[in-house]
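Sequence design from tokenized structure. All designs in this work follow the same two-part layout: the structure record, then the generated sequence. An example of the structure record is given first.
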């Protein structure tokens, strides 16, 4: 395959130098920025993630900062999740929808203070939507992208490695909470979160110049823990049911179709854009929904949706798939119509290499 031309439009991160020194083999582009996707091989990276500890350059999880008297009001306009009970120091996974209830992004929101929030975005240009709302509603709030770059530490030895660098207090951070920790005189938010089910942290690295010193410190401190550079792993995230915006869901889907209804409290999310549309779909219930799928046989890698077929008719689509050492088959995520979404239903999928048998499962693997 051809390679992609480097350019200013495909931004490097504060950790790219370390990623390259660690021998990154494949990149993807996410939020106009380099995101590593393979170091040794997807399968080797998977086994290492589940047994050791990895440091991930997830600077592509760009932050949108809201600052000012209307910050909380704007944040509640953005999401159907009710934010009234959210305290400073908490992270919330928040669906963001447009006026039709279509998904625009599925970020993690951090409440730094009543008048200061970060929105840690997935792959869409959410900054433009947020700036448009702030301007259109004449809100008293500053909206911009600060020089803050998440670095994730994921895997079973993440607590030990983080304690060595930031002190034992990091062990007490609860899931989806964050605290402020010092690294070489710079205060940084450290959260217990990350795009894997193996446990770990995300450090919101403040300042590009602090990226490589922290990267190197983590690599040296974790040598005896077999620390290695890693990245969000396709197999592990499918097994864990972690959705990928732009792949598993788009603006065409409501949060309910994505299985994110549990993160919506639309009735009480007063002022949220798309509220009327979502109240309608929440009442009726979705007619298609994300499901875990098993697919038999050898598969090519997926770079466009594969139609799901029953009795010659299209009943959905596969949007992510990978060969899983744990399941001994291909694990996949798809959007399936309600007529065929029950556990145990068998379907066919049309792949570029031919038809394969599909089983609809009830639960993800992790
Ligand atoms: N961390 C941070 N920013 C991010 C991601 C992240 N931005 C991009 C992308 N990932 C956004 N998407 C997700 C998807 C899933 C989760 C977080 C962000 C996630 N879900 C957990 C789950 O499904 O098990 C828990 C959600 C909950 O219970 O609240 O973590 O990873 N900073």
């Amino acid at each position: 395959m051809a390679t992609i031309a480097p350019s200013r439009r495909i931004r490097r991160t504060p950790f790219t130098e370390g990623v390259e020194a660690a021998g990154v083999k494949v990149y993807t582009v996410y939020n106009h920025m380099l995101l590593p996707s393979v170091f040794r091989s997807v399968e080797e990276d998977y086994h290492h993630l589940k047994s050791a500890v990895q440091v991930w350059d997830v600077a592509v999880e760009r932050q949108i900062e809201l600052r000012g008297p209307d910050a909380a009001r704007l944040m509640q306009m953005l999401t159907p999740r009710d934010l009234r009970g959210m305290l400073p120091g908490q992270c919330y996974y928040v669906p963001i929808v447009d006026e039709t209830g279509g998904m625009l992004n599925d970020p993690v929101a951090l409440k730094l203070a009543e008048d200061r929030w970060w929105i840690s975005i997935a792959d869409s240009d959410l900054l433009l939507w947020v700036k448009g709302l702030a301007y259109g509603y004449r809100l008293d709030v500053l909206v911009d992208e600060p020089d803050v770059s998440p670095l994730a530490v994921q895997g079973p030895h993440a607590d030990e490695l983080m304690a060595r660098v930031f002190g034992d207090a990091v062990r007490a951070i609860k899931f989806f909470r964050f605290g402020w920790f010092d690294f070489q005189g710079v205060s940084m938010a450290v959260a217990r979160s990350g795009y894997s089910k193996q446990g770990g942290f995300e450090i919101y690295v403040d300042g590009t110049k602090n990226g490589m010193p922290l990267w190197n410190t983590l690599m040296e401190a974790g040598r005896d823990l077999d620390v290695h550079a890693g990245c969000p792993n396709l197999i592990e995230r499918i097994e864990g049911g972690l959705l990928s915006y732009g792949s598993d869901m788009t603006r065409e889907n409501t949060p309910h179709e994505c299985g994110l209804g549990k993160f919506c409290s639309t009735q009480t999310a007063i002022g949220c854009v798309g509220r009327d549309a979502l109240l309608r779909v929440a009442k009726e219930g979705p007619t298609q929904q994300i499901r875990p799928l098993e697919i038999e046989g050898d598969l090519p890698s997926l770079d466009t949706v594969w139609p799901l077929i029953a009795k010659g008719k299209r009943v959905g689509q596969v949007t992510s798939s990978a060969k899983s050492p744990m399941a001994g088959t291909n694990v996949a995520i798809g959007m399936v119509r309600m007529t065929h979404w029950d556990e145990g239903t068998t379907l066919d999928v049309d792949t570029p290499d031919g038809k394969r048998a599909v089983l609809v499962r009830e639960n993800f693997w992790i």
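The pocket of (6S)-5,6,7,8-tetrahydrofolate is lined by residues 61, 93, 106-108, 120-122, 150, 176, 193-195, 202, 242-243 (CB under 6 Å). We note this feature because it recurs in several other targets discussed in the main text.
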